[in-house]
Fold this protein.
Amino acid sequence: MYLAYVDESFNKKLFYMAALIATPEQVKSLTCELDEYVLELSETYPTIAAREELHGHEIFHGKGGWQGLFPRQQVRVFMDVFDIIADSGVKIAIRGLDIVAQERKYRDAYPPYTVVLTKILEKVQSLSKAAESLALVICDEYHEDDRHRKLLANYRQWNTPTSTSMRLDRIIDTIHFTPSHESRMIQATDMVAFIRLRRSIASGRDSREVAAIAKLWDKIDACVVVDYVWRP
């Protein structure tokens, strides 16, 4: 069985969603390793709590409990977390949407969250079917939780409304929405989604940032089963 953890990262032009797709054993191992890592950090940096949330935006910009870190230390945290993710053997699915192109082409476009989540769910379905397994989906909290639970129920009974239309009969139960501070898996997914967005917008910026992001992505590249941006 797979557990698929989903989170998003976006700006006004691009919307990305990442999914970490793992077995229960991988979830247990990755959660324990991230817990131990943050605990070790808390013993070195007084601003970091033992249960501090790993949040891409806050770590990158030195906010919240991560405000006591210098830029080099912030990058080190990303490097360490990405090493832990890569070593866990989880699968990573990335889907994105060019919001500007979508709005230019469609007068009444579907919300980016709905569009990209549908494609993520299709990938979870495909992986589960290939493995002759089932999957449970866990997302970061979102203000339209009920709407997307109903969408999954529809997709399970009928088909997804896409060019790769399929019935999501390998995804069991409903979509579970949980606060990110309660799930290391959601936190790891958040960091992957955040860096994927930065990877798209870093070109032409600080060369050190471009190099660091390229190095980060190299760490997890072997785990990525899809990384595609839809530009309507």
